[in-house]
Amino acid sequence: MNTKLIMTVTAILFAIIGIFLTFAPDYVMTLLGISPNKGIELILQLLGAAYYAFAMLNWMAKGSIIGGIYNKPIALANLTHFFIGGMALSKAAFSNNTLPIIVGVLGGFYLVCALIFWLIMSKHPGKESAD
């Protein structure tokens, strides 16, 4: 499995979300139909910082061997984030018809990424031998 590509794609996704949440939390609140609130704006900015930090983690680890016992904390952190995030986004998309369609699409993407990181964690990163 090409972990360099997966780590690069997720790093770019996290960086975009992190920058957007950090510098445009008021726009995010408008998109989600939340009335402007300084407390929620601060929470969204802190969430943006966490996303951006995760982006840096994935970007820096993209050239490393990941899978099996190698870099297991990075793979497990990504698996946990994508699984819990995918479940929350999917639940929100199915239970609330007023949210933008991107919430459901992002939820599906998150669940696919969770599956990919589960496969990365479960398999040894070595080359398969042809017997």
Structure description:
With 131 residues, the protein is an all-alpha fold. The chain has 5 helices and no strands. It is globular.
Order of helices and strands: HHHHH
Task: Report strand %.
Answer: under 5%
Low-confidence stretches: none
Largest sheet: none
Specify the number of helices: 5
Q: What's the Cα radius of gyration?
A: 17 Å
Mean pLDDT level: 90
The total beta strand count reads: 0
Beginning-to-end CA distance, first to last residue: 19 Å
Layout of SSEs?
Layout: H1 3-23, H2 25-32, H3 38-61, H4 72-95, H5 101-122
Helix pairs in contact: 1-3, 4-5
What tags apply to this protein structure?
globular, 76% helix, mainly alpha, 131 residues
Q: What's the short version?
A:
With 131 residues, this protein is mainly α.
